[in-house]
Each structure stands twice: as structure tokens, then as C-alpha cells.
Amino acid sequence: MAALAYTNIFTNDIDRLADFYGTLFGLEEIVASRSPIFRGFVAGGTSLGFSGPGAYELLGLIPLEGQGDRAFQTFDVDNEQEVRDLTGKARELGGTIVKEPFATYYGWFQSVLRDPDGNAFRINFRGAAA
């Protein structure tokens, strides 16, 4: 079975976005991988990377045109209160709340947000709502 090693977010300002997620979730930076076009962080069993515009050429990719959600990151936490607390912290750090913390029909508790670049992400507790 394959394992997800990295998920990367392209951004025009890798420092701003890396600092947003690093500060919000207390992620440990993988300093050895830092470059002018990349910053990476340990994020549980995978790693989260932030790639600047120079990474497109390195990877042989052409930036997609237009707006729209193309990726959706989910960050699991240990309890409902942590969902609430991190949702508020995300707002303080420049994020936008799309949907306040709520209980899902499948028994999880989560909020939906956008980071300072407008990328959608979710803060999630995989337990029954109180």
C-alpha cells in the first residue's frame, strides 16, 4: 500500500503561509529542506510543504489558471475544544472561517476555514459531538 509522504500547497508567499500553518498547528519545520522555493513541516504521519512559484519550473508544471478549490487539507485534533480553540486562533492569524465548528452527520466535529491565500482546510475531531 502506498503512503502519503507529503502534501504541498503552492503559494506566492511561502513564508507567510508556512508561518500561518506552522504557528496555528505548532508544526515542526524540516529545516534541512528549506530553500528559497520551499518550506516543509512534520504533520503527524505525513509532511506539509509550501512551494513558491519557482517550484513549478523545477517540477515541470504549468500553474493552473483561475480560481477554485483543487485541494482540501484536513487536520485532525484530539477533542472538540481543540477544534474550537484552533478555529479562533486561525481567525486571529489571518484565516477566514467558512463554517463555525459543527457536528457532522457522520459523528465528527469540525470547522471549515480558508487560509490567508484562500485555500480551504478543515480542523477535525473524529469523535462523537458532545
Give a quick account of the main beta sheet: strands, pairing sense, barrel closure. Answer: 4 strands, mixed
As a percent range, the share of helical residues equals: 10-25%
Total discrete domains: 2
CATH architecture of the largest domain: Roll
Computed CA radius of gyration, to the nearest angstrom: 15 Å
CATH topology of the largest domain: 2,3-Dihydroxybiphenyl 1,2-Dioxygenase, domain 1
Q: What is the CATH domain class of the largest domain?
A: Alpha Beta
CA-CA gap between termini: 35 Å
Percentage of residues in strands: 25-35%
Reading side by side through the largest sheet, how are the strands ordered?
1-4-3-2
How would you state the average pLDDT, rounded?
92
CATH superfamily of the largest domain: 2,3-Dihydroxybiphenyl 1,2-Dioxygenase, domain 1
Poorly predicted tracts of residues: none
Structural class designation: alpha/beta
Question: So what's the overall shape?
Answer: globular
**Tally of alpha and pi helices:** 3
The total of beta strands comes to: 8
What sequence of helices (H) and strands (E) makes up the elements? EHEEEHEHEEE
Describe the structure.
The chain has 130 residues and is of the alpha/beta class. The chain folds into two domains: 6-59, 2,3-Dihydroxybiphenyl 1,2-Dioxygenase, domain 1 (Roll), CATH 3.10.180.10; 73-125, 2,3-Dihydroxybiphenyl 1,2-Dioxygenase, domain 1, CATH 3.10.180. It has three helices and eight strands, in the order E-H-E-E-E-H-E-H-E-E-E. The strands form two sheets. A four-stranded mixed sheet has the order 1-4-3-2. Strands 5-8-7-6 form a four-stranded mixed sheet, covered by helices on one side. The relative contact order is 0.19.
